[in-house]
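Collaborator request, handled under Task 6.
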Amino acid sequence: MGWSGYGTFVVLAVVLVLVPGPDVAVVLRNTLGGGRVRGSWSAVGITVSNVLQGAAAATGLAALVVRVEPLFQAIRWAGVAYLTFLALQAFRSAVRGRYPDLDDGGPAAGRAALTGLRQGFLSNVTNPKVLAFYLAVLPQFLAPGTPVPVLLAYALTHAAVGLVWLLLLVAGLSRARRVLARRPVRRALDAVTGCALLAFGARLAVSRGT
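Structure tokens returned to the collaborator:
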């Protein structure tokens, strides 16, 4: 479809990443809980997962995963379990209401980065709907027999757009963190985030197939 088709895909990618989902909830919680470093690395973890799943779709591996029902369901329930785990963590923080002082640097920065990377990656890679998205959307813009490098370029574009949006979100949350991190506000945000994560997990649990 040429540059016109690619431009249309970019517009669609922008629209899709702006729709709130589990990725936004995870980045929100990590940024408020661990600061800009942890939030940024959670965005990187999500992007790494998107790249891997996009590559799997481009090379045909994703189609195999989706067709093998036990494997697809195993990934789906792992995603449900992990989102539920994160939701329970958020609820526990809301109930306890004990939060460390704001600090984006020092020795804790390395741990915060690792935690953010792990949570971002796991929350995204255990969502089989991401694979299904690539398999459903990419063929709409590309003709049969399109070379793998072109497929990869489209998939990487979606991942890059998502990363830019999440990093902008982290930057905005970081600026407002002094206000948002006040104990009553933080407890309310943890409760709302927990509800959102639990809802995303429930939606994934009741979804049927792809």
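The cover message to the collaborator said: "The chain has a mean pLDDT of 83. The chain has one domain: 31-206. Please let us know whether this matches your experimental observations."
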